[in-house]
Design a protein that fits this description.
Layout (H helix, E strand, L loop, with lengths): L5 H15 L1 E5 L11 E5 L24 H7 L3 E2 L1 H26 L3 H7 L2 H4 L14 H7 L5 E7 L11 H5 L3 H13 L2 E7 L7 H5 L3 E6 L7 H10 L12 E2 L44 E3 L8 H6 L4 E3 L10 E11 L2 E10 L9 E7 L11 E7 L8 E9 L5 E5 L2 E6 L2 E10 L2 E10 L3 E6 L7 H4 L20 E5 L39 H4 L6 H5 L5 H6 L3 H7 L55 E3 L12 H6 L3 H17 L4 E3 L22 H18 L3 E2 L25 E3 L2 H8 L1 H10 L3 E4 L3 E2 L2 E2 L4 H11 L5 E4 L4 H4 L2 H7 L9 H13 L4 H15 L8
Parallel strand pairs: 2-3, 2-4, 4-5, 5-6, 8-24, 18-20, 21-22, 22-23, 24-26, 25-28
Antiparallel strand pairs: 1-6, 7-9, 10-11, 11-14, 12-13, 12-17, 15-16, 16-19, 17-18, 26-27
């Protein structure tokens, strides 16, 4: 296979890192530097390159390239005094880490994750590593030998269960400010490198004339430093674009007022009371604190807000400089089979530099019943490498159904293409676009009607003030634009479909045995009855239906299969001392682990008599633990669909080598706020970018390997702070309060795109609440929308943790979760109790197991 060779994977990792880094500033063409140029390299991160973030999306590598070493390898000469100073700083840091590392290495990390206790441990904020400031003499001596300095700013804060901070994190620390002042006061040309795991303040870069160049390096994996050196030295060229807006100040983000991030200051955690809402009316009772995150920005997240409200920014969405210069011209604009197709000729006008350009296609929707952002991205394409003077014709397109807006109704709502003119804009960033065409719609077109209600509770609607422009900004001078006219015949009218199942033996007695096949549930007769049982291989071979297989199973067996195979919660994962399943009447375990590599807590139970084997789930978005790849945030900055596909293919190969069945990726949540703890895991503030990159990754993994992906966190997990609450502090899981339209058009859109276009067989529900209902307990989300509207037939797994605290296991299954992870006897008992109480039905248990087995039958049985 293509990515069997580790060297090939590393070349791809470096290529992605190279295309991901964004050139924010390059005054006086200070970059690229000439080989042999002497510089003062400043900042501790030069010897401790940050390659990723923390938590399940963390990156680890023993072969991480370092910025300092790679610049030297690229022919850049370093000031000796600064070089020795930072080498000494690094040696001291390494010695300090060794003492901490021994204690950390001794921890049973997988057991801690499986038990849920890990969330109480690693949810604590870790501050920015202090930046030492060299004495004045270092600067005085260095500026005698060079006029240029490279200043590296590092960040590796936040992560799973923990958002970042504003002071001394998003903003520079006092030590970093001193370092910036000393550097800019000593050197005529300063190049800033942002080696950061999320967006940071960049206003100081834009405003400082001494800072001639700036690079958003981000967290681009173990090969990142080599890619950076190639770009700085001119061996490679920049082509990355920002996948999120860099505002002039944190307060300029429309989410700033409504985003909680500091667990150490409980008074600053937003609650229902801050919005004059009732916690009890929203289903949060018996909790000391009931956190909320109100999506008051509604449809106006990211560039949608800044463009619509005409707010100035430091660097806009989609922005990125190149060494070359490009020109582009629309050559064709037509409607082909229900898609608007735009052909654009792109020419490299540079006489010296080769390069790549990214074209971005936006649509401005008309003023109708629903107010709309000024423009929304509907497609993007990156050129191949263009030599000086060379041209390429690029095709961009979008489905005409994408013109629809969601209109909420009493019983769900509908997607409607409103009557009017839809103006198309083309450019290379959100603030550098020009109109070229329009689509005329002469009648209102309803493209889909839905019944799932995912919107705000009625008790909240009149009390939550959503931002909305007083006057919508119109596009001027549209009369001369190219135009196409569409009607109802040009779009696909969608219908929701519900898959029906037909089961035998529809009743079971109190012991959980079916009337017609009671022997199938007796452990003592398993061997004798195995020949009579329908097995999974019979279904695979077409000799029996999945319904027939599942109809044989007792309630106990169904309940076991609706959970992951693990020792239980909350402390059972540590040391694996507790039972890992429940038993038949004779005391034998119903489930077992047949996977030769996987740890309990990361698999489904195997049941021999039915031929069901264990499949292995493994984190995370930046890889399964082999190559440390660029993070999702950086992959999106490439704006390269082909590279995303190759990344998925390579990660899928690595998963297959580790005998992994379901790769727990990609993260499809929106970068709603720049200090989100997992922003590095996610792709963008734009749902189309998230959905497109996610689709390509999933297709690459699935089409080239015997693995599936598991998109997450479904849905609206845009705040880590108390995303699952705190059992210790009696704090409820955070409630994402948001309009139905924003849910569907922004936050569910990436998941919808991935499910419909790449067909993953697993998906992970999130811990948080959505409008008062746990995501894992939402029938509207996990069944009506995911299956009824999008046609998903795979397995929904919960996020890993204490489901006895987040949502009851029986309620999770009834809502549409098929496997509660990591599961174990306590949650199995919840499911059985829920069955006795009528909260989950026999058919719901059977359907959940069918979904699980749809996944299992597609995977390889590594026990053989």
């Amino acid at each position: 296979m293509k990515y069997r060779d580790e060297k090939v994977r590393l070349r791809l990792a470096r290529e992605i890192a190279t295309e991901a880094m964004v050139l924010l500033k390059n005054d006086d063409a200070v970059l690229p530097l000439e080989v042999g140029k002497k510089v003062a390299l400043i900042g501790r991160t030069q010897n401790a390159t940050i390659i990723g973030g923390g938590g399940s999306g963390a990156s680890h590598s023993d072969n991480t390239l370092q910025i300092r070493d790679e610049l030297v390898n690229a022919g850049i000469k370093l000031d000796e005094c600064f070089d020795k100073y930072y080498q000494n700083v690094h040696e001291k840091e390494v010695e300090a880490l060794k003492s901490k590392g021994a204690d950390f290495a001794a921890m049973d990390l997988e057991g801690l994750v499986a038990s849920g206790i890990i969330y109480e441990l690693f949810g604590k904020y870790q501050a920015v590593t202090p930046e030492p400031v060299p004495e004045k003499e270092f600067f005085e001596n260095a500026k005698k030998d060079t006029d240029t300095a490279i200043l590296v700013i590092g960040r590796q804060t936040g992560g799973e269960e923990c958002d970042r901070r504003i002071e001394d994190d998003y903003l520079l620390t006092d030590a970093e400010k001193s370092l910036v002042d000393a550097t800019c006061g000593s050197f005529e040309k300063v190049i800033v490198v942002l080696n950061v795991n999320g967006m940071v303040d960049t206003s100081w870069i834009k405003a400082n004339d001494k800072i001639k160049a700036a690079i958003f390096m981000g967290t681009a994996g173990e090969q990142a430093a080599g890619a950076l050196a190639d770009l700085i030295s001119g061996k490679a060229y920049f082509s990355g674009k920002l996948s999120q807006t860099a505002a002039l100040s944190y307060e300029d983000y429309p989410t700033a007022e409504h985003f909680s991030f500091n667990k150490d200051e409980g008074a600053k955690i937003k609650t229902y009371e801050d919005y004059e809402l009732s916690a009890e009316d929203n289903g949060s009772t018996s909790k000391d604190v009931s956190p909320v995150t109100v999506y008051a920005e509604d449809m106006y997240v990211g560039y949608r807000y800044f463009d619509t409200f005409e707010k100035k920014v430091a660097y806009p969405f989609g922005f990125g400089l190149t060494y070359a210069e490009f020109d582009y011209q629309v050559v064709n604009f037509v409607n082909v089979g229900g898609r608007a197709l735009v052909s654009v000729k792109v020419t490299n006008k540079s006489s010296e530099f080769a390069g790549k350009e990214t074209l971005q296609l936006y649509v401005h929707k008309p003023i109708g019943k629903e107010k709309n952002p000024y423009k929304e991205l509907v497609d993007f394409e990156k050129t191949f490498e263009l030599a000086p003077g060379a041209s390429e014709t690029v095709a961009l397109s979008f489905d005409l159904n994408d013109l629809a807006v969601f209109e909420e109704g009493k019983n769900g709502g509908s997607y409607v293409i409103e009557k009017g003119e839809y103006i198309l804009l083309l450019g290379n960033s959100s603030d550098n676009v020009a109109t070229f065409g329009k689509i005329i719609v002469n009648e209102e077109i309803v493209t889909k009607e839905v019944t799932a209600d995912i919107g705000m509770k009625s008790c909240n609607k009149d009390k939550i003030k959503l931002i909305c422009p007083e006057k919508e900004k119109a596009v001027a001078d549209t009369e001369s634009l190219r135009k196409i006219t569409i009607s109802k015949d040009d779009v696909i009218i969608e219908e929701c479909q519900k898959k029906e199942y037909s089961f035998e033996n529809d009743s079971q007695d109190a012991s959980g045995k079916t009337a017609e096949n009671s022997n199938a549930s007796e452990g003592s007769d398993t061997n004798n009855d195995a020949k009579k049982c329908i097995r999974l291989e019979d279904v695979i071979a077409g000799r029996a239906s999945m319904e027939a297989l599942v109809s044989q199973m007792s309630v106990k067996e169904l309940a076991v299969l609706c959970n992951g195979f693990g020792p239980g919660l909350p402390f059972g994962g540590i040391g694996q001392k507790a039972p890992v399943t429940i038993q038949y009447d004779d005391g034998t375990d119903i489930g077992k682990n047949t996977h030769p590599e996987a740890m309990p807590g990361y698999i489904n139970p195997a049941i021999d008599k039915y031929g069901i084997f264990s499949c292995y789930y493994k984190d995370g978005p930046a890889s399964v633990g082999k190559t440390a790849w660029p993070t999702g945030m950086m992959l999106a900055c490439t704006f390269n669909k082909a590279l995303a596909y190759e990344f998925g293919s390579a990660c899928g190969r690595e998963a297959q080598e580790l005998k992994v069945s379901a790769w727990l990726a990609p993260g499809l949540n929106i970068i709603r706020n720049p200090i989100e703890g997992r922003a590095f895991e996610y792709f963008s503030e734009d749902p189309f970018v998230c959905g497109t990159m996610g689709t390509q990754i999933c297709k690459g993994a699935i089409e080239n390997n015997q693995v599936t992906t598991c998109p997450k966190h479904f849905a609206l997990n845009e705040q880590e702070t108390y995303r699952r609450g705190s059992l210790k502090k009696n704090i409820d899981a955070v409630d994402s309060i948001v309009s139905a339209r924003a849910v569907r058009e922004i936050y569910l859109k990436p998941f919808e795109m991935v499910i419909k276009n790449s067909e993953p067989v697993t998906i992970m529900s999130s811990f948080n609440k959505i409008n008062g209902t746990f995501a894992g307990g939402s029938h509207a989300l996990c069944t009506e929308i995911l299956r009824g509207e999008w046609g998903f037939e795979g397995v929904v797994v919960t996020d890993w943790g204490d489901m006895d605290f987040v949502v009851d296991g029986a309620d999770a299954v009834a809502a549409g979760n098929d496997v509660v992870m990591p599961g174990g006897p306590p949650v199995i008992e919840q499911v059985l109790k829920g069955y006795e109480e009528g909260r989950v039905t026999l058919n719901e248990l059977r359907i959940a197991v069918i979904h699980l087995l749809n996944y299992v039958k597609m995977m390889k049985d590594y026990s053989k």
